[in-house]
Amino acid sequence: MREVRQTDFDLALVSAGIAAVILCTRIAGELGKAVLDFGHMADGIVKGQYPI
How many Cα neighbours within 13 Å face the side chain of 22? Predict the structure, then answer.
């Protein structure tokens, strides 16, 4: 959260396993930002399974 607070953003894409639930809740609640638990989608994009 210390790093998140120092960053200017409108939407957070969080891919952090089980911790993502906690991080998403805190980012939305404390900072009032839009947050999406990106899950394993990030791995799929890197591996080419989900082209963007």
Answer: 5
Question: What integer pLDDT is reported at residue 41 of this predicted model?
Answer: 83
Q: What distance in Å separates the CA atoms of residue 46 and residue 43, rounded to the nearest whole number?
A: 5
The DSSP result for 1-52, as a single string, is -HHHHTS--SEEEE--TTHHHHHHHHHHHHH--EEEE-TTHHHHHHTTSS--
Residues 34-45: tens digit of each pLDDT: 999 988 888 888
Global pTM reads 0.76
Measured in degrees and rounded to the nearest 5, phi and psi for residue 2 equal -60, -45
Share of the chain above pLDDT 70, in %: 100
Phi first, then psi, for residue 8 (nearest 5°) are -95, 120
